[in-house]
């Protein structure tokens, strides 16, 4: 069974956009103490490509969160599986996330990190699915706006599969609805 319905973003498209975002971030944070916070595991590819396109010195750290609910629909309740190692008080923090979908995960993460008093807090997201938004959240640095489809690849999974695909693809609904 072919579970990939369509390639939505090719390696080349992603690489070009990540380079642009890296240049923009480098310019905006010039001279600032910047901590890039990758959100595990979906952002792994975006994070590792992006930091290599940021030309200013940065610190990197990770958080792992899991949302309660089924594997393809978030419930809004978020649990921290791994917290930051670094202190962020007084520092400029950029969350690096894979997808902003309902926005509930981001809303939780921002509230949590803001309570630690960073100098600033912004968000870089590879993908945005605005059609499904439930709260008023957005990425300050965005790779691509995509339609309301379930996507995998470039770090993004369905049930821990497909993360190693070098592109972003729409998963065939038969892969998760069963047919
Ligand atoms: P939100 O809280 O609804 O914004 O969900 C954000 C998280 O849900 C993302 O970080 C992803 O981990 C997951 N997610 C949302 N859409 C997709 C998708 O199309 N494929 C895989 N994971 C997704």
Would you mind describing this structure in some detail?
The protein is an alpha/beta fold. It has helices spanning 11-28, 44-51, 104-114, 173-177, and strands at 4-9, 34-40, 58-67, 78-82, 92-100, 120-128, 141-145, 151-152, 168-171. The chain has a single domain, classed as Rossmann fold, CATH 3.40.50. The chain has a 6-stranded mixed sheet, sandwiched between helices. The chain is globular and about 50 Å long. The mean pLDDT is 94. Bound molecules: inosinic acid.
Write out key terms for the chains shown.
179 residues, alpha/beta, Rossmann fold, six-stranded mixed sheet, three-stranded antiparallel sheet, 4 helices, 9 strands, 32% strand, globular, binds inosinic acid
**What is the second-level CATH architecture?**
3-Layer(aba) Sandwich
Q: Strand pairing plus helix content: what structural class?
A: alpha/beta
**Helix percentage:** 10-25%
Q: In the CATH hierarchy, what is the class? A: Alpha Beta
- List segments where confidence is low: pLDDT < 50 over at least 5 consecutive residues: none
What is the CA-atom radius of gyration, in angstroms? Answer: 16 Å
Return the string of H and E elements: EHEHEEEHEEEEH
Q: Number of helical runs?
A: 4
Instruction: Please tally the β strands and state the result.
Output: 9
Q: What small ligands are held by the chains? A: inosinic acid
Overall shape: it is: globular
Topology record:
Elements: E1 4-9, H1 11-28, E2 34-40, H2 44-51, E3 58-67, E4 78-82, E5 92-100, H3 104-114, E6 120-128, E7 141-145, E8 151-152, E9 168-171, H4 173-177
Parallel strand pairs: 2-3, 2-5, 5-6, 6-7
Antiparallel strand pairs: 1-9, 3-4, 8-9
Helix pairs in contact: 1-2
């Amino acid at each position: 069974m072919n579970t990939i319905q369509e390639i939505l973003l090719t390696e080349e498209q992603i690489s070009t956009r990540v380079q642009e975002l890296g240049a923009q971030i480098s310019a905006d944070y010039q001279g600032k103490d910047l901590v890039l916070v990758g959100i595990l595991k979906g952002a792994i590819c975006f994070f590792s490509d992006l930091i290599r396109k940021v030309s200013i010195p940065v610190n990197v750290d990770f958080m792992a969160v899991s949302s309660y609910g089924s594997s393809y629909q978030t419930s809004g309740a978020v649990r921290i599986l791994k917290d930051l190692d670094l202190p962020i008080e007084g520092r400029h923090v950029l969350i690096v996330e894979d997808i902003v979908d309902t926005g509930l995960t981001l809303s939780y993460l921002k509230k949590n990190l803001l309570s630690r008093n960073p100098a600033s807090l912004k968000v870089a997201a590879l993908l945005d699915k605005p059609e499904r938004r439930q709260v008023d959240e957005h990425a300050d640095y965005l790779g691509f706006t995509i339609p309301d489809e379930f996507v995998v690849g470039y770090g993004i999974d369905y049930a821990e599969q497909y993360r190693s695909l070098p592109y972003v693809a729409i998963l065939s609904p038969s892969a998760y609805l069963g047919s």
